Structure to design on (227 residues):
């Protein structure tokens, strides 16, 4: 079974631009979560989508948004990029996450550099 | 490779020895815990999990211990190998859904 895939793997943007990252979960998984990883802050939860609805949200500004499609694929968008948005963005999927917490499996991440 | 954390606590062990990595979690209501391994340039890889109704769980060469009284989690790796060198994270979950809180991580370095 294929794992979680993320595209692109690397991205370079300049301040003020916006970016869209994509995540394809493991087949059969309906929950997709996004995390930001930086050396200073570690792994921080951004949001989780289940059945095309945002179910949980972390403490990030509104510039960070996401969505999920009917096939469970997800995208996250960051608008008006800042230097501090440079990070590894990780996507994780789980089977259903409904009623009981499920194991999360991570993709390889998208390395975003903001210049 | 990419740096996961610049000032992570580091555990150095000799190849073949057992490793114990510790984690203090934050919320007494957390009911599900996962240990992840992250190698340079890769996403976190699932190692083992445990729910709060258990205090010990074993996998292949790994054991997780949960002490709810002191909110402490540990990962034991038997016969540590060079391929075990990585950063290890514990993650806890207490809410409906998949909102995990991650610890800062520990870098495991296996010496030949």
């Amino acid at each position: 079974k294929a794992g979680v895939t993320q595209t692109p793997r690397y991205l370079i943007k300049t301040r003020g631009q916006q970016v869209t990252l994509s995540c394809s979960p493991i087949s059969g998984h309906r929950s997709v979560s996004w995390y930001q990883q930086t050396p200073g802050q570690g792994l921080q939860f951004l949001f989780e989508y289940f059945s095309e609805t945002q179910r949980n949200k972390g403490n990030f500004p509104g510039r960070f948004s996401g969505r999920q499609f009917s096939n469970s694929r997800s995208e996250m968008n960051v608008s008006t990029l800042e230097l501090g948005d440079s990070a590894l963005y990780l996507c994780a999927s789980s089977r259903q996450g409904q009623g009981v917490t499920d194991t999360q499996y991570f993709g390889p991440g998208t390395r975003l550099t903001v210049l | 490779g990419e740096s996961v954390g610049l000032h992570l606590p580091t555990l150095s062990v000799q190849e073949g020895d057992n490793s114990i990595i510790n984690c203090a979690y934050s919320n007494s209501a957390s009911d599900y815990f996962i240990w992840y391994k992250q190698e340079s340039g890769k996403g976190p890889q699932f190692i083992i999990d445990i729910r709060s109704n258990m205090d010990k769980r074993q996998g292949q060469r790994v054991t997780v211990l949960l002490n709810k009284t002191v909110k402490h989690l540990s990962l034991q790796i038997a016969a540590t190998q060079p391929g075990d060198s990585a950063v290890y994270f514990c993650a806890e979950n207490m809410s409906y859904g998949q909102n995990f809180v991650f610890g800062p991580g520990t870098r495991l370095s296996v010496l030949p």
Chain B touches chain A at residues 2-6, 31-32, 34, 36, 41-46, 49, 89, 91, 93, 95-105 (CB under 8 Å). Chain B has no helices and ten strands.
